[in-house]
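BUG: 3D viewer hangs when loading the predicted structure for this chain

Environment: internal workstation, default settings.
Expected: structure renders.
Actual: progress bar stalls at 90%.

Input used:
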Amino acid sequence: MSRSLSAFPILGVALALTAAPAPAQMVEDVFQYGPVRAVTLFKGLEQAWSLAFLPGGDMLITEKPGRLRVVRNGVLQPEPVAGVPKVRFRGQGGLLDVALHPNFAQNQLVYLSFSKGNETDSLGTTAVVRGRLDGNRLADVEEIFEANAWSPGNGHFGSRLAFDREGYLFITVGDRQFPPTGTVAEQEKHPAQDLTKDQGKVHRIHDDGRVPADNPFVNTAGARGTIWSYGHRSPQGLAIDPETGTIFESEHGPQGGDELNLIQKGRNYGWPVIGYGVNYGGAKLHATREREGMEQPLWFFVPSIATSGLLVYRGDRFPAWQGQVFMGGMVANYLARVPVLPPDQTVPAVHISRPGPQVLSGIGEIRDVRQGPDGFIYLIVDNRRGDQTSDVMRVEPVPVPTADR
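Structure tokens produced before the viewer hung:
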């Protein structure tokens, strides 16, 4: 069973001032759902990585150097939130994802993922803290997760956070750039395939850091009890459908082979034993693309789009996009829209060799994708001016002009 390879949106771009958005350039959507535009709301943030919406529409935005910023009443506050933990700001590391507790309105709990250094700052790993948002500070900050994934490397931290409908917190941890080369037997011993290690995994914990008793490997001798799935490379996106509970994850392949995965309990997603990319420079990396006991991606991308934030759309502003998955592309510089089948149908593996048109080409790297409480889609877009700054943009439908009577 297959789907069209043109399953991607086309967006318009608006270069706008914060106070007065400029007219947007409009490009018709490939599925003819009507024109949409992207309008710049805030610009000049320093390497923004993620955003979350507070009740009422205010925002929290992370900046990699270690700042948590607040947007109140549509205004980006000049002072960052106090109480954020010290981060190891190097390479891909820094202050990364932000998520709110499902009961935030009652408990004000904010969750942050970040790259954490050891005492000498010679090694780093992925960690998660939570704290209570009290005005412009985080109070009662406590670390609830620290991956046993220490490495001198500055990449593949993972760090995406997502709560499911039952209140469990899912956390991605990358393979920390552990070399994938070698024989098949050596690849089978890679940390992403090793249940005694935290690298290359999706983890699941209680909201306070406790290990759930029903995690798949909690009773496996030597295994890390937090592991939910394994065999991942560099998971840059994580989203849970609020209506179906389906868990989606996107990750970077090596040279080619980016993936969108349907995450299921205890499953092995194959890295580095199987995959659709090649080693940097073009040398063969995987012995095979498929293997019994290892999951196939829903979609793969060759060449890579450098996947980032992930969203399952459930708003009312784009009715035709209900239940579709949106993926940011950092190298591709566009937003990929991926239709998925309803939950009562079998989800086949769909392999894309060359994705649809690279719309928004040149706009910059789409780092995060979120749905706002207003039903619009919000983006963090990096390097639009060739520097290290980021913009927050809102994707919205363009009103159809009413004919004069």
